[in-house]
What we know:
- The chain is mainly alpha-helical and 341 residues long.
- The chain has helices at 3-20, 35-54, 70-118, 127-148, 168-179, 186-202, 208-231, 237-257, 265-285, 301-316, 329-340.
- Helix content is 68%, strand content 0%.
Amino acid sequence: xxxxxxxxxxxxxxxxxxxxxxxxxxxxxxxxxxxxxxxxxxxxxxxxxxxxxxxxxxxxxxxxxxxxxxxxxxxxxxxxxxxxxxxxxxxxxxxxxxxxxxxxxxxxxxxxxxxxxxxxxxxxxxxxxxxxxxxxxxxxxxxxxxxxxxxxxxxxxxxxxxxxxxxxxxxxxxxxxxxxxxxxxxxxxxxxxxxxxxxxxxxxxxxxxxxxxxxxxxxxxxxxxxxxxxxxxxxxxxxxxxxxxxxxxxxxxxxxxxxxxxxxxxxxxxxxxxxxxxxxxxxxxxxxxxxxxxxxxxxxxxxxxxxxxxxxxxxxxxxxxxxxxxxxxxxxxxxxxxxxx
Length: 341
């Protein structure tokens, strides 16, 4: 079996394992839902059993070993009791900041959509408005998948559930990205095109759109930048190495310290490993608010779906903001729709 095939099999196994632990009552033990953590805890139990079975803590005459691991274990406990909560606190803060910035970003994108439609009146018949809405409706999902590393323009959708790459706005974003794949990101290009069309809509006109839309654009782009800064931050390598070494030394030495418990050392060390590695897992995963299929912590997926739905609703109810010119406010918009089909 090749290395690629092996990695593919492990990926499938990990996916199946995560789905298995989404069921009740397994759902209440999220650390075991991570295959790596489960394997480490299992190895810990096997190692403890081996220590007990082979009587590694005793000499042949039945006396204790000439040395004690209690001092080292106590030091490791103190180290882990300090580092693990610190790591988890930083992860929770990062998660909260990313969620807050994403919610602010989604709100500003919605405000920009209202600004674009509501302040244009009859000029909403401009094709530029439709292109801007193509981009705006797609943006919440594009941002989420950009940070997740799964962004695919061919699979992205926009207003009326159209493939983003089939719309005029999507085609322009895709073309610009393909010309400079190592330059601006897809999201940056989307913001650039929004600013470009916003300029065309307000050119040579004095309108509330000039200031309102500009401020919404600036706030949304600021939130996007803040999310990028938070998402790309990783703990110092020195911190991570010290934590990992302390964890593995602890689980390796703890059976010798609990030797008096005999066979009970197996479940006791397994339980200790569950909590220590559970905290370590939480600290390493909770900080990623853009994770896919996350268990036990909040991600931006709910906010993204709500924002996309709200943007689609703004597009569908655009006729309700048109005032005057007809006793039937839908008449004008029906004519516009037919014009641009």
